[in-house]
Structure formats: structure tokens, C-alpha cells
Design a protein that fits this description.
426 residues; alpha/beta; Rossmann fold; 2 domains; binds nicotinamide-adenine-dinucleotide
């Protein structure tokens, strides 16, 4: 249940560095618990948008931003000036991969250097970005101690993984918050802070365990969804509907956890975090066969989807409509989205591709800018194939099934009653 904005006010000022899919909802959670929040983001356009009451996240409306601004406890800037006035600084910057598929800690390290220049005695720093075990103690501590202060004595440092699920309206504060600090004093300081905001705080023995916990969660999902995707490819050959089999298996009261296949796993977390773990594993002379296999399957998926689309069409000048470009339902995030990869590959093979996704009004592919088209019966009929790649809740899938020549439904989005021979599942 959402806690109200009128909860007893907690004293203190929290700077949140990185106001993206994680940092902005977190800022709102701290404000809701009574803290004064100073948002910091290097993207001046985001800061200007927030200051004029505009949201760039699908999970927060302009009204939400206006409410946040009206509390008088939220402000944001594109500089780090607010750090010196803060009791706590929470880091929520991106942790992407380099071109070579290795962890890119540039954003985290840059933020840490900025903090080191401004650190005050007794400040608490918390890293929330997803990363490999050892980031906080091996990478952050040396940078922050360049300030001349000692961790656990002069300042406190903890790691607490963000577990937000964009597109899901669940109140962030009801998701248990895992954390581990560098030493007891850091752990206690971070636990005291987060207990004021979150319903449940799960304290673990170290920052490394907390870092590993997040990566464990995402690696489990990466491997299991990839397994489903591999089995979906097998089921095509066996002429078995995998969705029907998964629903039947799900009737088992114990020992089976449901995962579903799809066009490939996207987003900034699930396909990225396991590679952070694999990097760390290799540093200690270990390699995870599971992670490598899951990644290979994931990389195969856009190509496999394209082959399925081609098998369904019989045209010299094929036209395909993609429904859903975001990496998952109900979000405006296309990072690592398989749907975008499918679109690019189809275009490279000479297919005329249009897309529909109200969350992504425009997309640049090379030098071309494409705009989302509206879904009308006439338009749906005009394509040789409609490929449902993301299952946003607002889309009328029955309309698509009724009017499309052929549908490849990779998300099991078309309602059962509308499944006719023109609807083919992944
Ligand atoms: N998106 C999710 O669903 C999700 C869920 C859980 C955890 N995470 C993790 O949280 C972290 C942030 O992810 P996100 O999705 O919010 O990313 P994001 O790209 O949406 O937001 C990050 C923000 O940080 C800003 N930024 C980058 N470097 C900066 C710096 N040095 N100083 C100040 N601002 C800086 C960027 O401008 C951006 O606005 C990542 O480690 C991610 O893996 C993400």
C-alpha cells in the first residue's frame, strides 16, 4: 500500500545522483517519507523538464512531478553543489556494458570523484546501481578516501540494490530493501535511513553480498527466460504450443516457477547484470557456462524472430508492422530492446517496416527517423505480417487478430477467443 505524502516528516537531506528510471522514483519515495531531496543529474534537459513539471518516465506523470515540486522538499540541478548540504548521497547512475561487453563503471566512478571532492564528515554514501560484487569496496572506497576521510570512521558507505520494476504500479517502498555496509557503523547508518522509507529492510553482512544478491536475482531470470526461449524454438519444430505447456506445468503446486518466452530479453538490467558477474567470475579464474549459454540464446533471438516472420509471408516486397518497441510492457525504455534489433535487421533485409508503440512516439534508425503509426483496421490489413513484440496493456490485440493477414504473437497477447489460423505464437 502506498504511504501518503503526509507521513511523519523525517529529518535530513538526501542527494540523489542520477534521476532516471531508478533515481527519480526513489527521490519521490524519500520525499514522501519527509526527507528533503536534492536531485543531481548531468542531463540538463532532464533537470529543465523536472523544473517545469514535465516527466520523462512512463511510470510518473507530469502531475506526479508537479506534486513532487509542490512539496517544497524536492529540487534538482545539473551540478553537484547540493552534496555539501546533504546528510546522505544515493548514487543511481547507469552501469552499462562497453562495446566489448565488459562492465563500464565510468558513470559510477565519475560520480564518486565528484563526491570525494565535496565529502563532509559523517556523510552516508549509498550506491544503488546494479554492479558486480566488489564494486563498493574495491572501486568506491579508494576514490572516496582520496578526500582524506576514512570509511567507517569519518564517513559511511553502503550498497543497496534497487529492485524497482518499471511498468509495475507497486509502491517502491513495499519492495523489501536489501543492504550491506562497509563495517557495522555504515550498515547501521544505512539501515536506519532506509527503515524510515521502506516497509522492510533486509540487512546482509557486507556490500559484496548485497551486490551479489541483485545479480543473483537478475541472472536467475536471464537464464530461465533464455531457457524458455530455447524451448520455444524447439517447440516450433515439435509443433507444440509452449504457452499451453507452461500453463499446464504451472498447475503443479510445488517446484515449478513460471517464466515465459519472448522475442529476446532487453532492458538495462537483465541482459546486462549477468555479464557483470561473468566479468568478476573471470577475475577469479571462473566462468559460468549458464551465463554464456543464456547470452548466446538471447543474441540469437532477433534473428530467429525474423526467420519466423519470413516464413509467414509470401511477398516479394514484404511489409511488416511491429507492435511494441519498448523492451517490456508499459514502459518507454528501448535500451537493449530486442524489438529494435528485429526492426533494424528487417530493414537491412529490404523489408518495409512500420511500428506502433505509444510509449515510443519516434525512433531513429541510422539516419532515418520513424514515427509510431496508429492502429486502425485498414492499416493493420495493409501489412503482410503483424509481429507483436511487446505486449503493452493498452493495445487492442483483438482488433489486430481480426484484421491482420497474419500475426506472429511473441508474447501470447492475443486473447484466446481471437486465436484463429492467422495468429501464430512464438
Ligand atoms: N531501469 C531499471 O529497471 C532498473 C532496476 C533496478 C536497478 N537498475 C540499475 O539502476 C542504475 C540506474 O539505472 P536507470 O535505469 O535509472 O538509468 P537511467 O539511464 O534511466 O538513469 C541514470 C541517470 O543518471 C544520469 N547520470 C549519468 N552519469 C551521471 C553522473 N556521473 N552524475 C550525475 N548523473 C549522471 C543520467 O543522465 C541519467 O539520467 C543502473 O545501474 C541499473 O542497472 C535499473
Amino acid at each position: 500500500m502506498a504511504k501518503s505524502l503526509t507521513k511523519e516528516l523525517c529529518k535530513g537531506t538526501v542527494s540523489i545522483v542520477g534521476l532516471g528510471y531508478v533515481g527519480l522514483p526513489l527521490a519521490r519515495a524519500f520525499v514522501s517519507s519527509g526527507y528533503v531531496v536534492k536531485g543531481i543529474d548531468l542531463d540538463a534537459r532532464k533537470i529543465a523538464g523536472l523544473n517545469s513539471g514535465k516527466s520523462y518516465l512512463s511510470d510518473m506523470s507530469d502531475k506526479d512531478i508537479e506534486e513532487l515540486n509542490q512539496t517544497g522538499r524536492f529540487s534538482c540541478q545539473a551540478t553537484y553543489d547540493a552534496v555539501s548540504q546533504s546528510d546522505t548521497v544515493v548514487i543511481c547512475v547507469p552501469t552499462p556494458l562497453t562495446e566489448a561487453g565488459l562492465p563500464d563503471l565510468t558513470h559510477v566512478e565519475r560520480a564518486a570523484k565528484e563526491l570525494a571532492d565535496r565529502l563532509r564528515k559523517n556523510q552516508l554514501i549509498v550506491l544503488e546501481s546494479s554492479t558486480f560484487p566488489g564494486t563498493t569496496d574495491e572501486h568506491l572506497v579508494p576514490i572516496l578516501e582520496q578526500s582524506g576521510f576514512k570509511v567507517g570512521v569519518d564517513f559511511f558507505l553502503a550498497y543497496s540494490p534497487e529492485r524497482i520494476n518499471p511498468g509495475d504500479p507497486t509502491d517502491l517502498r513495499s519492495i523489501p530493501k536489501v543492504l550491506g555496509g562497509i563495517g557495522e557503523a555504515s550498515t547501521n547508518a544505512a539501515a536506519a535511513l532506509y527503515r524510515n522509507v521502506f516497509d522492510e529492510v533486509v540487512v546482509v553482512s557486507s556490500t559484496r553480498v548485497a551486490e551479489f544478491t541483485k545479480i543473483l536475482e537478475n541472472t536467475q531470470r536471464f537464464i530461465n527466460v533464455s531457457l524458455c526461449n530455447e524451448l520455444a524454438m524447439l517447440c516450433e519444430r515439435l509443433d507444440i504450443n509452449i504457452w499451453e505447456a507452461i500453463a499446464a506445468a504451472d498447475t503443479k503446486p510445488y517446484g515449478f516457477t513460471v517464466y515465459h518466452p519472448g522475442p529476446g530479453i532487453g532492458g538495462h538490467c537483465i541482459p546486462v547484470d549477468p555479464l557483470y558477474l561473468e566479468f568478476k567470475a573471470q577475475q577469479v579464474g571462473f566462468s559460468s557456462g549458464f551465463i554464456r549459454t543464456a547470452q548466446e540464446i538471447n543474441q540469437k533471438m532477433p534473428g530467429y524472430i525474423i526467420e519466423r516472420i519470413f516464413k509467414l509471408m509470401d511477398s516479394d516486397q514484404p511489409k511488416v508492422l511491429i507492435v511494441g518497441l519498448a523492451y517490456k510492457k508499459n514502459v518507454n525504455d528501448i535500451r537493449e530492446s530486442s524489438a529494435v534489433a528485429v526492426m533494424e535487421k528487417l530493414r537491412a533485409r529490404g523489408v518495409e517496416v512500420s511500428y506502433h508503440d505509444r510509449y515510443i512516439p519516434e525512433i531513429r534508425i541510422g539516419s532515418t527517423v520513424l514515427s509510431s503509426v496508429e492502429l486502425t483496421s485498414d492499416r493493420i490489413q495493409a501489412f503482410d505480417c503483424v509481429a507483436i513484440l511487446t505486449d503493452h496493456d493498452y493495445v487492442d490485440y483483438a482488433l489486430i487478430a481480426r484484421h491482420a493477414r497474419i500475426v506472429l504473437d511473441t508474447r501470447h497477447a492475443v486473447p484466446e477467443r481471437e486465436v484463429h489460423p492467422n495468429v501464430v505464437y512464438l
